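A reminder before we start the practical. When you read a complex entry, don't treat the lines as separate problems. The point of joint prediction is that each chain is placed relative to the others, so the output describes one connected object in space. Small molecules and nucleic acid strands, if listed, are placed in the same frame. In the example below there are two entries. Take a minute to note the order of the lines before looking further.
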Amino acid sequence: MPEEMKTLVVTGLRTQFNTAKGPVAAVRDVNLKVARGEIVGLVGESGSGKSVTGLSIMGLIDAPGEITAGAILLNGEDLRKASPKRLRELRGDRIAMIFQDPMMTLNPVLRIDTQMIEAIRVHDHKVGRQEARERCRDALGLVGIPSPEERLEAYPHEFSGGMRQRVAIAIAMLNRPDIIIADEPTTALDVTIQSQILAQMQKLCRDTGTALIWITHDLTVVAGLTDRVYVMYAGDVVEEAPVEDLLDRPIHPYTDGLIRSIPSHNAPGQPLNQIPGITPALDRMPAGCRFHPRCPRRTDACLEEIALRSFGPAREARCIHPLVEG
Amino acid sequence: MTAFLLRRLSQTVITLLVMSVLVFVGIYMVGNPIDILISASATPAERQQIITAMGLDLPVWQQYWIFLKNALAGDLGNSFVYNQPAIRLILSRMPATLELAFSAFVIALLIGIPLGLYAGLKPRAVGSRGVMVFSILGFSLPTFWIGLMMILVFSVYLGWLPASGRGQTVNVLGVPLSILTLDGLSHLVLPALNLALFKISLVIRLTRAGVIECMQMDYVRFARAKGVPEARIVLLHVLKNTLIPLITVIGLELGSLIAFAVVTETIFAWPGMGKLIIDAIGVLDRPLILAYLLMTVVMFTIINLIVDICYSLADPRVRLGEDSRS
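Here is the predicted structure of the whole assembly.
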């Protein structure tokens, strides 16, 4: 598919935080491509830079954070060159985001209808209150909230966590955006609620042709939901692959470690697998491959900078000792 | 709601009872008003006659019993000094104090909230630092000294504003008010500003702290992700959340404004209750002191009630008289 047909193309994204000790890069060199209606997973541990990537795409990085390099093309338009006004117009209209903690994303002192109707009317003043209200009610119904008409008048504290996340999803879908970035929206929820929301989200995106970037640390979520996966480690994308390939034949030792860390992967009674060590702190990044201190396959050659390279169609990895040769 | 009001009412009655006992016993122990009130040249017969007339020859518990019976009938006794009903004396002075206190209250909100908002939104700006220095000064400089300086600058040197009295008043429903005439207003400005200064500082700090906290909340980020303009985020999403702690503190502070008015009234010769009560304490005018304190309790109860109602309006999670469910 040619590049201009992609909904979102991110190239060479670098986001850094200017701290007292100097700038540290939370995201170093991220490339992402999302086609129309595609569901893409962005997987990594805490601190791998996946949330910062999502916020960078939205243009929601607050000081002292700053995007210092790269291009973010939404339907061919570079968001990094867009004015703040244009960005505001696009946010919530063409590109939307859902956050991790449903208890915190809705404003506790405003009614649901206030928070939903404003999402429509800040983008299109011509929509009347009544029409906007009807659209909100329909959106609530679509995400599985019972008696949406009455629930519009409720406050966030009158909803459970799962219901609040449904409301957040309904708000994100209100203007039929081209792409939604979902930052671990089911992490704080029960597994039963999680699976309901995953199924609903998948269906909604398929029905409306909305693309989705699902940020998560949970490979089991990715397995059922996504088409393609990017694995991030310490600010780098270390592997990109269609989801079946990634899970069956991981290339990067880190991806392999992640898959082996899933408890159900183990025979009962055996000690659980784990990746030794922890994600390095942003200001103490190892030279070369950032994973090498934790990697079972490391050699001295890993101390050099390592570029992403292709391992067949739609597969890339940042490794010189891959588990599978391309 | 009814249960809530009834509970409040019974609490108030108990407070009134305890208060009156304490004041009664307290004044009884401090000294004998007869020694202060009756001139040294009075004959023993005259002296005895006055003591009997005032009921001061009875044991203290009996005096209290008589007071209580009269109080229930709505009679708080005559002032020893003025020989007028104490309650009428207080009511005649109360409008001046309330006018001063409420003017100061409104000034504190009108100046404090915008400045606090600015300092909270741009905490690093030079202007914000200036605002914070001002608030530290407002906190630490003694009210009476600032009052004197204000008189010195605005009345003595510049001659812009009068230094004492209420000026011309207008009767509204039988209550004299200064604020409605230009002359009265010019008399009101200095004392009200003086009294407001400390509260302005307080409101600035509370608003700033609340805004800084709220701006980091996920719901602000979510509102931005919806494309809501920054002005609406600040004035609706953030301000409404900031108001919740503000209402609690400010409500309590309104009471202290009325109490602190004593100092300001003395400096600016404002004919309010403050002057009256200071004099009454000086001559142990028990009925007047009692009536004043009882009035204060009633006033505080009403203020607290209003605060609770405002609080429940601002924060939907609070419902009066119900057990909190969230």
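Discuss with your neighbour: Chain B has a mean pLDDT of 84. What might explain this?
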